[in-house]
Every structure is written in C-alpha cells, then in structure tokens.
Amino acid sequence: MFEFLLRMGDNTLVLGHRVSEWCGHAPVLEEDIALANIALDMIGQTRLWLGLAGEVEGQGRDADALAFRRDAWDFRNLLLVERPNRDFGHTLMRQFLFDLWHHERLSDLCLSEDDRVAGIAAKCVKEADYHLERSKDLIIRLGDGSAESHRKMQDALDALWPYVGEMFSDDTLDIEMNEAGIAPLPSSQRPRFDKALSATLALATLIRPESNFAQMGGRSGTHTEDLGHMLATMQFLQRAYPDARW
Amino acid sequence: MYAQEVKSTGKGIKTHEEMSAEERDFQVRIDAGEKIEPKDWMPDGYRKNLVRQISQHGHSEVVGQLPEGNWITRAPTLERKAILLAKVQDEAGHGLYLYSAAETLGVSRADLIDDLLSGKAKYSSIFNYPTLNWADMGAVGWLVDGAAIVNQVALQRTSYGPYSRAMVRICKEESFHARQGFDIMMKMSSGTAAQKAMAQDALNRLWWPALMMFGPTDADSVHSAQSMAWKIKVMTNDEGRQKFVDQTIPQIEYLGLEVPDSAAKLNPKTGHYEFSDPDWAEFFEVLKGNGPCNVDRLRARNKAHDDGAWFRDGLMAHTKKQQIAAE
Amino acid sequence: MANDWPLWEIFIRGQHGLSHRHVGSLHAPDAEMAVLNARDVYTRRNEGVSIWVVKSEDVTASAPSRKGPMFDPSNDKTYRHPTFFDIPDEVGSM
Lengths: 246, 327, 94
Known about the structure:
- The structure holds three protein chains of three kinds.
- By secondary structure, chain B is mainly α.
- In chain B, 65% of the residues lie in helices and 2% in strands.
- In chain B, strands 1-2 form a two-stranded antiparallel ribbon.
- Chain B starts with 20 loop residues before the first helix and ends with a helix.
- The model of chain B has no long low-confidence stretch (mean pLDDT 93).
- Chain C has one domain (2-92): Ubiquitin-like (UB roll) (Roll).
- Chain C is built from one helix and three strands; from the N terminus they run ββαβ.
- In chain C, a hairpin with a 7-residue loop joins β1 and β2.
- Chain C is elongated and about 50 Å long.
- The termini of chain C are far apart.
- Chains B and C meet through α4, α7, α10 and α13 of B and β2 of C.
C-alpha cells in the first residue's frame, strides 16, 4: 500500500516540479499562468498522496519528509514524468500523455475499496479532467497548426513514446493491489487510453509511432539520470540544513 | 516607483487660463475625483505618460517573476513551493492586467513587449538584483512587495479608470504577497543560526534597493508636478519612501534583525524615522543597465519570447485554418 | 502583426446569482482558448461559475460610462488569502 501511494504521489511530485521549472519562461503570459495552475494542482495532489503514504507507513514521515529526504532509488514515479522539459512541445506532449493516463487512473481509483484512496482520487480527478481538456486541446491545435508546430509535436511524440508503455505494465505490487480491490491493473486501462489517444492524434494530424518498445524501471526505483539532478535541486535546502524548519 | 524613469515634457503645469476648453474640462473632472475612461477625450501628454507608466509597471511584474522564480525549484517544503508558485503566478497575472489597462489606451501588448525586449522600455530597478538565499523569498515579499503596496494602494485613486481598477484587483492580491514574505522572515529569524544569518543577509542586500524603488528624491524628480496634477501619480517619491520606512523599521525590530542603516532613528517630534539616503549613483547605474542582473533578466525574457514564437504562431495558424474551413 | 493573438474581454458570473461581470481582458487565438485562459487567469481565487468571452473589437461602446466594474475574489487556494498567514498583532498592518 505504501509503495502504491508513493507511485501516485511521486508522479505528481516530479511532474509538478518539471512544470514549475517553466515559471516565468513560458511562451506567453496566459500560458505562464495556466502552467502554474497545473503545477499547483500537482503539488496539492502530492501532499495528499504522500501524506497518506506517511500515515500508512507509520514511521513518522510526513509528505515533506518523503519528498525531500528520499534518494532517487526510493522514488516510484514513471520515467515519463521525469523527462526534461526540453522545448515547450515536449512539455505539452509529456503532459498530454500523462493526463490521458492519469485521468483514467484516477477515475478507476474513485471506485477503490479503500475509502482514503477513493477520497483522494475523487478530489484529484476533477483537476485531472481539466488538465486533460487543456493539454488535449493544445495537442490538437499545435499538431494541426503551422508546419513548424506540427513537426515539433511529432518530434515530441516520437521522443516520448518509449515512456508510454511503462504506464500500463503490471508487476506483483499491481496484482496485489488489484486483488485487494484498491486499484485495478494498469494494463486494464490500455484499451481506453489507446482509443482516446488515437482520436486525439487523428485530429492533431499526428502519427502514432509503431514501436511497442517501452523503457521501464521508474516504478521500481531505477530512474533516468535526470531524476538525480532534479532531486539535487529540489532537496538542496532540506539536505544542506537538516536541522532547520521552514 | 514603477515609473522611475518617466520623463515629462519638461514644461510646467498650465494654468487654467493657458488651457484649451477641452483641457480645462478634463482637469476639472480630475480635480473632482472623476475617473477618465478609455473613450474620453484626454490630452496627448496624459495618454503618453500613462502608457509609459502602466507599461513599465506591467514590465516590472513580468520581469519580477524571475528573481523569485529562481527559487521555486529549491523551495524547502511542498507548501512553500505552492505558495511561491502562486505568488509568482500572481505576478504574471498582474503583468497581464496592466498590459490590458495599457491596451485600452490604443497600444498593443506585442508592441509593449517588443519595447521591453529591446531594452527601450524600463522596469523597476529592484528586479535587477539577485536572489541569493532562501530568505530572499521572504525579503522580496516583505520589502519589495511591501514597498510596491505602499505605492499601489495610493494608485487605486489614480485618475485613469482601467489603471485604477487594475490596481484595486492587484492590491487585493498583493497583501498575500507581503504577508507570506514576512511569514518566511519570521521562520528564518527565529530559526537556526544559519537561517538567521540568511535573514539578515537578505535584509542587508535588499533594504537599499527597496528604498530606491520609490525613485529619486523629490528634489531630483522635477517631472512629478504634471503627473500629480493629472493624478497619474498620487504620492511623491519621498512621501512613499517615508511611509515605507516608518512601517518597516518596527517590523525589522520585531524580527530581531538589525536595520542595515546605522543612522536610522525615530524622531519623536515628527513621529517619523530619519534614515540615510540610498546610494543614488548605484541607482542610476542600475537604470542605465549596469545592475547585477540587467543583462540576465532581459536575456531570460528574450529567450522565453523567441523560443515561444512557434507556439504562438502555431496556435494562430490552427485558428486561421478553422476559420477558412468554416467559411 | 498578423500573427498576434487578438484581445478578448472577459465576463464572469460568480455563484451568488449576479449577472456576468467584466473582469478584464486577455489574449488568445480564438474564443475557445480565451475561455480556457480566462479560467486560469481570472478565476485563480474566484469560483467563477460561468465565463463569457467577447472579442474586444466586437464591443461597441456608448459614450463613456462613469462607473467601472469591481472585483470580488473569493476562496480557492487558502494561502492566496492574506489571512492564511498569522502575522502577530504587534507587527501592525500588512
């Protein structure tokens, strides 16, 4: 259960951090403001999931202790969300692929037999619904926009595609969670994801890459090099001044 | 404040006799406390000064995202990160409100932004100083936003309706900014020795630049008279600075920090604090582009704008396709 | 420039049954995106129930009105509200 909650909370923690890196540097003021809202939602969701994780663990760690005092191998997020921002197209495509998965995941979790999980999911799914509406809209517009925006979005999709498969892989923890009625198998979401993805890509005039190869490891703690750098930045104050309260 | 470099025509204020009928009418409305609205007749000088002042104010908010944005990825707790992000987001929003107010005067945001990016337009000198430790997030909110609020509260009474309304909205949002800053300062100054040292360091570095935000002394600010008559400016630089010092020094003492000005003391007769002049030579250097961060700030804004061109154009291209398809 | 996003006027109706109010303006490529942007820009503290957007150039104004819209922010994220921060009384107003 603890690990499952980390998987949920680390996704939003890491992606929220990535999105917040744009603050003040987005292509237009309206987008700066919109991105900040998404990052704020992600941070809020992180506090809920990691807060519950700390409770379940029962070792006195709160959401901050989990966010700021764990090393990379203890993180359980998808590799997708730690991918660097690169350009705005990558950022939006990463967000869209995540939102599409996240929205389905949270919708399923609303039916969890664990009331705490269902409660958090019910709050988060409303936010995820808006995130998806917005990211889907932007993918369609930019894919079917100028030649340049089309090219950038296709490039982003191609580059991020190897990180899609991990979202739908089942491991022993997933099987336990499924049997306990806490969370359905990730693989069960794939058909819905594929259907929604195809519909959006068609409108965006983007081509779904053919390869089914999936980079794996994030959910069990084997990450890309990028996560270590992110944590070095994110955890700096807590690590450099371990006695301080902020 | 946000018009540290606004220059007037250099002419004195016209007397009622020297004014045209329209000018006289206009001045009478302002004196009566009426708001001027976009479609109203207004003197060219009024329009020009307002465009410059409002856009500089807007640019200040937009560039002002950067010093605090510098610490978002290093905020020490999830709550602090959320608060800081929300605050910087507000600044983007304030920039947007102000640009919108300027646009009611017949200029386009794109042109205003071009002027910022080319270095032609100015923004507040304060944002050309770096943020070097976490306590700077406290000091910026408390001192910089605190100084801005002194000015902005007064500007709610400005004569131009859209500007005044933007100020009303902004002031409501800014109070949160100063308070979250002071909250950080309280935590830092009552924390570990290292935290207290950070708090004092932040105060030492930002105190003088905060005083400079109000602009040169009234004696050196010959342009104010017309702006005051038009209620584009509603408080002199020195009045604002005095008000800020009076409210802030007791707060420094409350925090148990040292006022970075050994000459600062309360004058019991006037009830006001006496304090030293900031280094005006430094101030004018920063305005000329020689502050510690001028180059970096403009480079960051230019990069965001240039890198984002394909995004803005791509969305517009989509809209045009849709419009053609609909016809 | 032809590629600049047009300006939109934003009207928001809150939950208290009042009619839509003008709250400001913003830029967006088209009406749908103007609605999305308005949600992000103008309801950061509001619980706006409904948003209208009108292209600024489509607004025909009468002779100048003398009263402007005011704004009514309300609760969303509590830390945005000054009262979230507990400032000791002796510090004075902030």
